[in-house]
Amino acid sequence: MELYLNISLTFSSLFSMPVLDILGVNVEFPFTPYDVQTNYMTKIIEALQTGQNAVLESPTGTGKTLCLLCATLAWRFSELKKIKALEVQDKQIEEGLGAWGANNAAPNETTPNVAKIIYASRTHSQLSQVVKELKRTAYGKQVVISLLGSREQMCIHPEVSKQTSNQTMVHMCRNKVNKHLCHFYNNVDDARKNGIFTKEVMDIEELVQLGNKRNACPYYSTREVSKQVECGVIFTPYNYLLDRKSRRSHNLEIGGNVIIFDEAHNLEKLCEESASFDLSSLDIANCIEEVGDLLNAVTKMAETGTVADGHEAGETTALSEFKKDDVALMKSFFLALEEHLDKIELPASKSKSEPGRYIFDFFSKVNLTFDTHEILLELMDKISSYLSTLSNSFRTRGTALQKFSEIIKVAFSASSTGPGDAGTPTFSIYSAPARPSIEELTRFYRVHICEDAPKTGKKDLWKKDKGTLKSKPSRTISYWCFSPGYAMQDLVRNGSRNLILTSGTISPIDSFVSELHVDFPITLVNGHVIDKHQIFVASLTRGMNGVKLESTFKSRGVMEQVVELGNTVAEVAKASPGGLLVFFPSYAAMEHYVKAWRESSDVMRKLESTKLCTVEPRGKGELKDAIEKFYSDVKSPQGGALFAICRGKVSEGLDFANDNGRAVLIVGIPFPPTQDAKVKLKMSFLDDLKRSGVPKVIPGSEWYRLQACRAVNQAIGRVIRHRYDYGAIILCDQRFTRKDQVNELPQWIQSHVTSFDDCPKAMRRLRSFFCSVREKENFRLRSLSGKDAVQPKRSQPAIDKRADKSTISSSASRQVSFGGMKKMYDITKLPKMSDPDCHVPSRVNKPNNSTFAPDCMCQASTLNTRKRKRVEHGNDSKKANLLDALDQCNDVTEEEEPTNLGEAEAHPMSTHLLVMDRRMAETQKKKKIKIKRPPTMETPLEDAKPSTSNGPTQEQPDERRARFGPAGGLLQTIKKVLNSEGYKTLKGATETYRQKENIETLVESLAGLFLDNPAHHYLLRAFVRFVRPKHHTRYSELCEILTGQKCILTQTESNT
């Protein structure tokens, strides 16, 4: 079928939203879409109409979630309409035949059975954000959804909900449900009949509130909703969908339904983990303790008729149901398993690997096989369920047996059946479902046995020694799946209509798809909605002192390189406003650098004097406090820096929009640890498949390299989170200049990458980028507010002409930072549904100034108090204008251009700096120039008679001398108070002023140089002599706002 795109724009009278005709499907969208959004929705609808699988990449900030919801629901509603239309036709035909004696059956009034949308994301919090996005769309009031959550989040029973262990909560809940002891569950059926949980779209928090209000369990109610024909979308975490047991327990029917994996960049890893397990000696010892505890209680009950200590909270009837021989046999099983694991011979390395079938040989030694494992599972689940009823806040029971039960289910998962397989095992990667041999079953697995490293943590005095082999070191046997296709093909075999995988960072797609063993005919790599001026990307080969930048295990031992990297990070921190994210390859690397910077150099002192630093903790429980501290630091005048690791918690799902993530710096390339057993086995596994001729398999070395690339891309994705966000990406390693590394970056970033051998030049460009982007953003907001703004002549700010002007309210306001002062501009605080802002989580309910950098954005380095060489000014210049004086200082010479040819267009100020860089280089080759006092300023200082009408309230001799004395004297004074970086900034600002004649931009730049020290305010005011006459009055007004005093103007100047 030939695909076509016919997008026509109409307006829905009900929602006042654009209606898009995409491939014949009417999509109600909150605003006129960008091209990338149209492309994205087109691919989604194409996949849904053809039933083909799709992999779609669209950068964060392009409205991916909004497009996904609108396109899928529009398609589903269109299918509903088609089916209802056919039913009407059938009914009309039946009515026509009725006159000839046809049976007039009652019409079918039920909802047509259309494919449901199963929307999976990584975490419950991400799903809650998606549900909130759905509520803002036109479909939020039309669709019935089911949001599947965990008991930890949704249980409202006062006794069960207070349990700290998830397993304990599960068993207590099941026990009360089975015995009808939970009145919340008993009301679920009435809630279903009354449609309590289907009347509106609700997130988890709202579901819990409603459940408490109506005394109905939200956990089981949402599961009931998912089974209803009326349910259009089922929201679920990944693990509920990928694991067969979880699918069954949550009533997830995938046959004939559409499955969407959002944030799918980690899908490969999660598929493998869902089919893998690790079993340690400690796990077995815990099982022995739990079963032994029950055995003692059963024995005492049988012999004395009394309940053993610790079992008083349990039910006597439940305890009496256990047979002593069965429990004793269970304990003997675990003792034998522990002994067998300890007897495995290991080489001197204390670890070894085996083929996948080894796990069945291991379990068969203790008579655990395909034929016997069901009997063992039944008894284990019964014991763990009983023990969970004994749990309290001081002790949790039954969790060890529950974990072992999950392990057995993974190992023998091929014995379970799927719908439509008629009892036949469903495991098969490349062949049709059939009873697999052990070799076929374990082809995509490897077994690893190793001795565990001794733990050095504090001893828990409350815990008893477990197991019978206390003197032996602990061991772990691992059963690792290395084929994500195991889980993905299981979904296909169970009849899913099609799969849609989407994320902001999937590329490279070919290698990603090759491991899933499922065909994806439809693919898309989308661009971004931002403009060129909103992004700056630099790869640095050398640091501030010219030392090579490279972060490898070997280079970390070279102190010179360690210090150079630290100084470079400090310079980036100084040049960047707001929040700086610094990503390291690993925890070990991060801790090494931070320790070295603190102990062996003053790098950390420099960093902490520029930004308040926070380090990502290893523990999950400490992360929340660390992030909150960082967010708080960003709001402070000093700003904040967050040190984190690639593939860590910070790099995965946290939002660092606006000032929280103005720059991200990547230290080194985060390759996986080469000595990690799982990494080595994965590479070996891929190489074996490649040699055996399996199609579309990448070599192990290529997989290893791509893991690092994807980790970098995920970390980079923390910046630029919406249409008007902006930020910088700094790649601190010479290896990032290689073409193969650049080609693996997100496609929308590749064209912006500029390689720098000169780090100081890169820092100047970075400063100019932030100055330029703030200028454009200020202009955009002033335009939206209706305030008068001087529009730059050459490089106009990007203004979204599609912004909804109706959202602008004269009573709303936004604070705009300007040179240390705050100015109020009226813009909207109340966006309508048709405003793109309300569909971007990063831009909803944010502080007014969140899209701006702090006042120090254009500020140069801290003033250097060291004595500087005296600059002699000769008589090469005869003009008082500073721009002309600077022009005559140097001639333009050729210098190596940056590799990015599009940078000049993207960053106008950077273009000027190219010229300034050349002049600076040439200055070192020429003699110093002496600037004579111009003949136009022959009036002696003491005879100058400035007008007092516009003068400052208190005239200072230094200011009068600077204002009316020789121009060279003012230049000389400025060079004394500014360091070299500050003087370079001054030249860039004046060059920009020459071309654009934007007086406000000039004052902003000068304010960053002179406002910090009150003693230098007079230089800012005196600088009016170099301003074009038509701007004298405005310049003086701005100076009064910033310093409290106007400039000294002559009568002629004040009348200009």
Summarize the structure.
Residues 785-815, 924-964 are annotated as: Disordered. The chain has 1056 residues and is α/β, with parallel strands linked by helices. It is 43% helix and 11% strand.
SSE layout and pairing:
Elements lengths: L8 E3 L6 E5 L2 E4 L6 H16 L3 E4 L6 H35 L18 E5 L2 H12 L8 E4 L3 H4 L11 H13 L4 H4 L1 H6 L10 H11 L3 H10 L3 E7 H5 L1 H6 L8 E4 L5 H8 L2 E4 H24 L11 H5 L3 H20 L7 E5 L2 H7 L8 H16 L10 H13 L26 H4 L3 E7 L23 E7 L3 H9 L4 E6 L5 H6 L7 E4 L9 E6 L18 H17 L3 E6 L2 H13 L3 H8 L1 E4 L7 H13 L4 E6 L3 H5 L9 E5 L9 H15 L8 H17 L10 E6 L6 H5 L3 H4 L2 E4 L2 H27 L28 E5 L2 E5 L56 H6 L15 H4 L1 H16 L33 H8 L2 H11 L2 H17 L2 H12 L6 H6 L9 H12 L7 H4 L2
Parallel strand pairs: 4-13, 4-14, 5-7, 5-8, 6-7, 8-13, 15-20, 15-21, 16-18, 16-19, 17-18, 19-20
Antiparallel strand pairs: 1-2, 2-3, 9-12, 10-11, 11-12, 22-23
Helix pairs in contact: 1-2, 5-17, 12-20, 13-15, 13-18, 17-18, 22-24, 22-31, 27-28, 31-34, 34-37, 35-36, 37-38, 38-40
Describe the protein in words.
- This is Regulator of telomere elongation helicase 1 homolog.
- It is found in: Nucleus.
- Residues 806-815, 946-955 have a biased composition (Polar residues).
- Its main location: nucleus.
- Belongs to the helicase family. RAD3/XPD subfamily.
- This protein is an alpha/beta fold.
- Among the domains are: 274-454 and 465-482, no CATH class; 532-670 and 719-769, Rossmann fold; 882-889 and 929-1054, no CATH class.
- It is built from 41 helices and 23 strands.
- The protein has a seven-stranded parallel β-sheet, with helices on both faces. The chain has a seven-stranded parallel β-sheet with strand order 17-18-16-19-20-15-21, sandwiched between helices. A four-stranded antiparallel β-sheet has the order 9-12-11-10, with helices on both faces.
- A hairpin with a 6-residue loop joins strand 1 and strand 2 (18-22).
- The longest helix has 35 residues, at 64-98.
- It is globular.
